[in-house]
Every structure is written in C-alpha cells, then in structure tokens.
Amino acid sequence: MKMTTALKLLFFLIALAPFSGLRAQNENPIGHKDSVYTQGRNVFGTDDRKSTIYYTYDDYTRATAVMIYKSMFSGSYVQAPTLGDLLLDIYKPKGAKYIHSDVRFKDQPAAGDCSGFLIAPDILVTAGHCIDQSNMYDVEWVFDYTDKLNYPANKKIYIPDQNRYRVKEILTQKLIGRTDYAMLRLDRPVTGRKPFIFRTAGLISEGTNITLLGAPFGVPLKVVENAVVTQSNAAQTYFHTDLDAFGGNSGGPVFSSRSGLIEGILVRGPDNGYFSKGYYIDANCQCLRTKTYTEESAKTDGVEVQRIRDLPYDLLVGAIYTNINFALKSGNDDEVSRWAAYNWIHTYSSLKDSTPLVLRATELGRVGALKTLKQNSADLMVKDQNGRNIVYYALRSGEKDIYSFLQREGISFNETDNNGENAVFWAVSMYKTDALNMVLDQGVNMNLKNSFGNTPLHEAVYTYNLDMVQALTSHGADVLARDSDGKTPRKLAKKLKAKDIKKFLKKEEKRMKKGG
Q1: Are 251 and 132 in contact (CB under 8 A)?
Q2: 4, 220, 359, 365: which sits with the fewest CB atoms below 10 Å from its CB?
C-alpha cells in the first residue's frame, strides 16, 4: 500500500546514522500515517517476483512509475535505506535478530512508496489511498526506478530530472469501502513512453493469467507473471488474485498476460485478520522470514485489484482521446493505430465539446492516420461545433495529399457551416490563395451569401488581398453582388480605402456590364 507524508527530520537522521542503528517503537519507523509497513501483503506458493531487467515487455516497465516523497530528495539524489535495514528497524524491537535468506531483495534500496502507471501521456493512475489533497504536492512520480539504478555504498540514488514528475491536479480520487482509485494529471506529458491500453467494459474471467508491475516494499520495480484471477464477481468493483504483492505494490498495474490490457489497480491484501504484513518472526531462529500461503487460500482471500473499468467513464474516454490526439501531434502512426481500436470514441457523447479526431488528423495533414481512423469507424462527414466539416481542416493543413484523399472519398466541398459559409469563404478567411484556387477549381459556389449577407468576394475585399479578389473574379465571381448594406465589392473597397482593389473591381464591373 502506501506511505504518506515523511518526517523530514527523521529522514535527515537516517541519512546521518546507520540504518540498522535506528530503533522504531512501532511498525511505522518513517512516520507515515498509513505506511506500507502496516498493509497486508502475501506470497502465495512460490515467490514469483523477479527483476524487470528480465521482463520481455520493456514498454510496460517504462510506463510504470513509483511514488517517492520529496523529503527523500537532495537535489537529484534520493537517500534510500536498504530493504533489510528497514525491516530490521521494524522487527528488531519485536525480537528478530537477523533476516532469513528467504527474504528477497534485502540489499536493494527501499525509497519507493506507491506504484502507478500511465494511461495517457500526462495522466497517471494509482490507488486512492496512495494520494489525496493532503499529500499531492509532497510527492514525485519517478520513472525507470528499476534494478538498473546505480546503488552505491553511500546509498544515494541519482534520479535524472527527466524521470521526475509532479502532480498538477487530482482528476478523481475515491477511497470508500472497497472502492479505491485515483487518477492524476502530471505537471507535463511523459514522452518516449507508451501508456497502457485498458479495459472500459466487460469482465475479466476467473482463471485468466495476469501480470503485476510495482515496487514491493519500495524496492525497484518487480514483475509478477505466474498469477491468475482467483475470483471475479461482476457485482464487485474489485477481483481476487494470487499475485505475490507487498506494501508498495499499491497502485501498480494489473493486466492480462496475453493481451496486455489493463484490468485493474493493485490496492490491498485481505483484511480478514488471517494474513500478515508479508513478514513474520520465526521463533525457531528468532529471525525475520517471508510469510507464505498456499495457492488454495488465494481463491477466497487473495490480493485484491480495483477494476479500472469502474473509474469515472468520462475520464477514461478522455484519456483515450488524449492518447490519439497526442499521437497525431507527434506523428506516431503506430500509436494512432493502437488507440484507434477504441472505435466507439468517435461518437461518444461526452466528447461533444472536443474536436472530432478525424478533423484533428486532417488539420495536421496526417493522411495515414486519417485512413486508420476511417478504418476504425470514424465518420468523415462529421462536423465541429461551428458546423465546419473536414474540408475546412484540410484547407488549414494545406496538404495536397489530404485534398486528393477527400476527393477520392467523395467529400463535398460545398458543405456550409453554421454561418452559411462554404470552402470558398474558409479559404478566403485563411488568406490562402493557393487553397482558394484549388477550391474554385472544384466548382464550389463562389457567389453564396453567408449569414452576414456577404459573398466570398466581399470577404476577400475585407482582407485587402488583391490576389484573392483576382482569383475569385477569374472564376466568375459576381462583382455586382450587394451585401446587406447594399454595397458591391467595389463600393466596399472604396469605403475601406483599398485603392488597388477598387481600381481592379471598377474594370471588372465595366467588363461584366459589357458582357465580356
């Protein structure tokens, strides 16, 4: 589970004195109000935890973070005790003389508190008991907290700034009964890492093989692969597993070993009083050992996992939208394809205030991504809040490949927006003469009047752009059309003191009156 706000003075003392020399009078030696040391965790059968160095899926490890209190930092370094030092500090007053060899990772640093994982570049999910308004600014989330870290004799771990993130806001946090989750917005997007895909509906089946990543008791990230769902009840917001987990694993991602889909958040061990905190004092040797239980016991009393599907749905959908949008901006077609599998996102009602993703892709000139979205049920005929269709965004991009794609798809360039304006108006408003010529070559209505009573030629006069005025007239724009004030484009140019345009339009009027 978690440790909360650290006592800075005690950390200072820890930095100065040998860790084994400290004597705690309770099970919370670092002074946290809800310490990892008080949380029930267990090993079921064989201890299956292993270093992420030997884990096949590096992307998963890189998207998993560990929470460390700022008070443990000194500049870019974290002063971290060994796991063995911390355990002795807890259990020596209770009679433990030494640590048995079955206690694993005892020589590794134990700086971490909770675990967490990315579901979008700037959105991290963890357990609800790990963080709230009281400690959100006291912690940092650290990536690449693995066995690859250098842990020298002075026990100071170097953490580069690019791997350290703060919490900007808590998007949601809930710790009521057995519902336990938090979704955080980080202070900046995490780049170079792939957020986890996750379940948004349905139910994981009992017997499904699952994997856990996290920082057991605060040591560098470990992976547990040889585990299954032991109990899954649709009426509950959590499911049971036989994962080998300890305090510090809270908030870690639990995902299908086959699909990689996040199923939930590791949140707690059983609270029926039978299971311990993961360690016990063996009276035979007066030593500290790892508490181990049978696989059979996990069927009813295993480690519990909060279902991720039960987090606020609109926030989950927003995270998916963010992932696709971010992939579009960064030019990552592989990520667009990965997240486009959530094809219902194009019609989800909560996104009515967001620009449809096909329009985003079009504006960015991403033909490949646009094709991928279309293949995943995106509607090319969708409009934004202003009633502008995909052509408007194609004009913004200026990419000829996008124009060609839309033409092949049979997209109309004559569609109008909420102001009654079509692609001719849009090209004029963007000051793009090349785009205007392309639109005019498509035979788009150039004499349409918008809701303000202006034609595209009137709008071109307002821009003081002679090139666009000439482009419109060369394609047959009506120079004698009148706006809502009864002014022709020439009269408007006179009013605006656009002399060159007025002179040109005067000649065009004469030519038109003569039928030339």
Answers
A1: no
A2: 365
82 beta partners: 109
Beta-carbon contacts of residue 445 (< 8 Å; ≥ 6 apart): 414, 422, 424
Compute the distance between CA of residue 320 and CA of residue 357 in angstroms, rounded to an integer: 11
Low-confidence ranges of the chain (pLDDT < 50): 1-40, 271-276
Distances (CA, A) of 450 to 390, 420, 424, 447, 454: 19, 5, 11, 10, 6
Taking each helix axis from N to C end, the angle separating 400-408 and 390-397, rounded to the nearest 10 degrees, works out to 160
Other C-beta atoms within 10 Å of 285: how many? 12
Angle at 104 between CA 278 and CA 155, to 5 degrees: 110
The full 3-state SS of 388-428, as one line of letters, equals CCHHHHHHHHCCHHHHHHHHHCCCCCCCCCCCCCCHHHHHH
What is the rounded distance in angstroms from the CA atom of residue 499 to the CA atom of residue 391?
33
Local structure of 219: helix, strand or coil: coil
Give CATH for domain 412-516.
1.25.40.20
Identify the three-state secondary structure at position 324. helix
**Is-same-fold flag (8-310; 412-516)?**
no
DSSP notation for 326-342 = HHHHHT-HHHHHHHTT-
Helices (H) and strands (E) in the chain, counts: 16, 22
The predicted structure's pLDDT at residue 516: 56
Domain locations in the chain? 8-310, 412-516
Measured CA to CA, the distance from residue 302 to residue 337 in angstroms comes to: 36
- The Cα angle at residue 38 between residues 34 and 43, in degrees rounded to 5: 135
Q: Is 215 helix (H, G, I), strand (E, B) or coil?
A: coil
Please enumerate in sequence order all residues whose Cβ is within 8 A of that of 388, keeping only pairs 6 or more positions apart, or say none.
417, 426
Look at residue 184 in the predicted model and tell me its pLDDT. Answer: 98
Element holding 305 (H helix, E strand) = strand 303-307
Token digits of residue 172: 């949601």
CA-based R_g, the chain, Å = 31
**CA-CA distances (angstroms) from residue 438 to 63, 394, 418, 428?**
45, 12, 23, 12
Amino acid identity at 396: R
Structure token pair of residue 262: 């996040």
In this prediction the pTM is 0.85
Q: Two tokens at 44? A: 């079921």
Cβ proximity of 424 and 457 under 8 Å: no
Q: Which of 488, 487, 492, 468 is nearest to 479 (CA)?
A: 488
The CATH code of the domain at 8-310 is 2.40.10.120
State both tokens at 118: 């990315």
Give the separation between CA 118 and CA 469, rounded to whole angstroms. Answer: 52
- In eight-state DSSP terms, residue 198 is B
Locate 162 and state its tokens: 């690019």
Coil, helix or strand at residue 180: strand
Burial status of residue 341 (CB atoms within 10 A of its CB: 0-12, 13-18, 19 or more): exposed
338/163 Cα distance (integer angstroms): 24
